[in-house]
Amino acid sequence: MRVLVTGGAGYIGSHVVQMLVENNYDVVVYDNLSSGHRQAVHPDAKLIVGDLHDIPALQHVFSANNFDGILHFASRILVGESMQQPFSYLRDNIYTVINLLEAASMHNVKRFILSSTANLFDQPHRIPIDEDEPLIPGSIYGETKFIAERLLAWMDNLYEIKCCCLRYFNACGAHPHGHIGEAHDPESHLIPLVLQVALGQRDAIHIYGTDYDTPDGACIRDYIHVQDLARAHILALEALEDGCSRVYNLGSGSGYSVREVIDAARRVTRHPIPAIEAPRRAGDLPILVADSAKITRELGWEARFNSLERIIQTAWNWHRRHPHGYQS
Ligand SMILES: NC(=O)c1ccc[n+]([C@@H]2O[C@H](COP(=O)([O-])OP(=O)(O)OC[C@H]3O[C@@H](n4cnc5c(N)ncnc54)[C@H](O)[C@@H]3O)[C@@H](O)[C@H]2O)c1
CB of 181 within 8 A of CB of 12? Predict the structure, then answer.
């Protein structure tokens, strides 16, 4: 099976690419390297450096390859930035999906996996959040994923392009071999920020809000290991062979508090990791955790990295060896 992985040089995409290669897929990565890294792409995958805004280049890639499926990771991903630069996010995350879908429809590609987001659930009624929860995007970034999901429903209707949308909160960890991992600049995710303290790259980590209605007063969030995500994407791709589009939420089901993450990182790194308690941030909900029961039931997927220490150990393994990311 030959697949196109957009954003395959990025954090999650590069782990998925490696797993696809290991499972004998023929992989073409299309990435503009705006936040991705050439070195992150498995040598057995073909990297094409190109932008999804570039319609002729994209059409050329589709004409030259007979793709059986698409896994779409290429996106701008910062929630806060999307509220400051709404139009560039709308352009970069929606026009690109339109270009990709048009190419898929013209070249008869019938399977599409969207790396969506749990930022679609801004005011959840129930925790953990399941697929019946109403979709209320929490930001312009979330809105772009919401629109992408809606467009995919139309593509199924018009062209029988079957899709699977995977919604999740915080991807984390790194490949257990430590050769690929998270390298975002700027970094906004908690685990790499905590590990930057252990590496001496930042003085302390802030805990925003210590009076939430949670066991230790700090926010609880869902962390899902990037290898578990990679497996979910491949299972979803294979499941589309039955000709049914679907959506799944992916999560740990329970989540961890900010304090628990910092404590686990202290144990793993043996560094004191000073923490500074700070006021709540506007808009932060006390608990955000997704329910994976549906994908477990239908595809047999379960998170294998279900211990926080093990997750952080893989991230630490990567960051310690690559303190400056792929430039190290
Ligand atoms: N990281 C998370 O915690 C998380 C959580 C939920 C969903 N997601 C989704 O997963 C996907 C991947 O996230 P990530 O953390 O790996 O991000 P990332 O920034 O590491 O990877 C995105 C990749 O897309 C490429 N790209 C961006 N715009 C492009 C364009 N116009 N044309 C070609 N390539 C382009 C970048 O160079 C980069 O390699 C995104 O769609 C994101 O919305 C991520």
Answer: no
190-222+253-327 CATH = 3.90.25.10
Cβ–ligand 1 distance for 187 under 6 Å, the answer: no
Q: What is the pLDDT of residues 64-122, one digit of tens each?
A: 999 999 999 999 999 999 999 999 999 999 999 999 999 999 999 999 999 999 999 99
pTM for the predicted model, two decimal places: 0.97
Amino acid letter, 142: G
Residue 173 CB less than 6 A away from ligand 1: no
Q: Assess whether pLDDT exceeds 90 at residue 5.
A: yes
Q: Is the pLDDT of residue 153 over 90?
A: yes
Mean pLDDT of the chain: 97
> Would you identify the CATH topology of the domain 2-172+223-249?
Rossmann fold (3.40.50)
d(CA 25, CA 152): 24
Using DSSP, state whether 42 is helix, strand or coil: coil
Q: Which atom of ligand 1 is nearest to the CA of 40?
A: 39
Mean pLDDT of 22-41: 98
Annotated domain spans of the chain: 2-172+223-249, 190-222+253-327
Ligand 1 midpoint to CA 45 (Å): 18
Structure tokens, 168: 């999740």
